[in-house]
Amino acid sequence: MRHRPFLFLLLLAAALPARAQSTEPTPRPVAEPDDTLTDDQAEEGRPGMQYGFASGALGYKTGLSEQTFGVIARWVPVRWLSLSATPTMARVSAPATSTTGAYSQAGFEDLPLEAAVSHGFGGRYEPTLSGSLGVSLPFGDSASGFGSGRVNSSASVGLGLAPMRGVWMHLGAGHSLGSLSAFSTSSGWGDISAGTDLNDRVGVSGGFSTDLGAVDPAIGHSTSLESGLSYHVAGRSTLNFAVSKGVSGAAPNWGLAIGFGTAFPYLNHLGSSGSSMRTLNSAVGGGSTGTTVAANAHSGRGRP
């Protein structure tokens, strides 16, 4: 009997460590990373807000010149969906002609809104399919040529491929729904581009864009050649440059653009917006046809 307190203490001492061990939370298994995505794809497609600023200059054979400044605001609620708005302001200068004097004016253009989806399949060539629906709201002054005066809509599709590591290709096509798009003098457009990453920070690209479908016979098809350079600054921010050369139609005779922010594809990864060169040219109105102002001027709308 006199040993019972001693035995009780021994049993209690043995039970305390076991109880402390049982009350510790069970460690949760660490989620394995998604091996189907590259580092660039995971970084560029991360959900959240993306922003970008773009400025450019365009020159036409007629002597008309444009300076533009655009802001890109894109929300990515999930990896495969993005919603964006790109307000743009332009300044147009025209030389004197035999019937009109020289003039210069500035204003906001129509506001483009876009909803885009994309899906990467992985595997060989890493194909990425994308599609988008766009709406252009008539914010610009149609009397002075800065707007179309009506709501316009369009749809586009794209296919991205990576034939080898660090090399990509993209095919894209779009068509206006109903009336002509505010950004084109034709009912459709297409582009093909390719690029490569020179190292972990620098990527280069080149491409060709053209009008598709019915066009104004007085203008003809507008085509242009484009090239771009992308520099990864830090995080998801990139500095982008693009130059373009018009080949035919109403395309700008030359174009220069610069953009900075997180809204440009990370090191030319092909998502719903295609390459960084395409995103930059869209923000400043480059590509095959130029901005709304130039399209209106060539088609006879707005100020002569």
Notes on the structure:
The chain is mainly β and about 300 residues long. The chain contains 4 helices and 14 strands. A 12-stranded antiparallel barrel has the order 1-2-3-6-7-8-9-10-11-12-13-14. Strand 2 and strand 3 form a beta hairpin. The longest helix has 19 residues.
Question: Which descriptors apply to this entry?
Answer:
304 residues, mainly beta, twelve-stranded antiparallel barrel, 4 helices, 14 strands, 14% helix, globular, disordered C terminus
Give the helix/strand layout.
Blueprint: H1 4-22, H2 39-44, E1 48-59, E2 65-78, E3 81-85, E4 88-94, E5 103-108, E6 111-120, E7 128-137, E8 152-164, E9 167-177, E10 186-197, E11 202-215, E12 223-234, E13 237-248, E14 254-261, H3 276-284, H4 292-299
Antiparallel strand pairs: 1-2, 1-14, 2-3, 2-4, 3-6, 4-5, 6-7, 7-8, 8-9, 9-10, 10-11, 11-12, 12-13, 13-14
**Overall residue-averaged pLDDT value:** 77
Q: Give the assembly state of these chains.
A: single chain
Low-pLDDT runs of 5+ residues are: 6-13, 16-24, 28-41, 180-184, 286-304
What is the number of E strands? 14
Q: How does the helix and strand content classify structurally?
A: mainly beta
Task: Please compute the radius of gyration using only Cα atoms.
Answer: 27 Å
H and E order: HHEEEEEEEEEEEEEEHH
Portion of residues within helices: 10-25%
Distance between the termini: 115 Å
Which sequence of strands runs across the widest sheet? 1-2-3-6-7-8-9-10-11-12-13-14
Approximate shape: globular
User: Sheet with the most strands?
Assistant: 12 strands, antiparallel, barrel
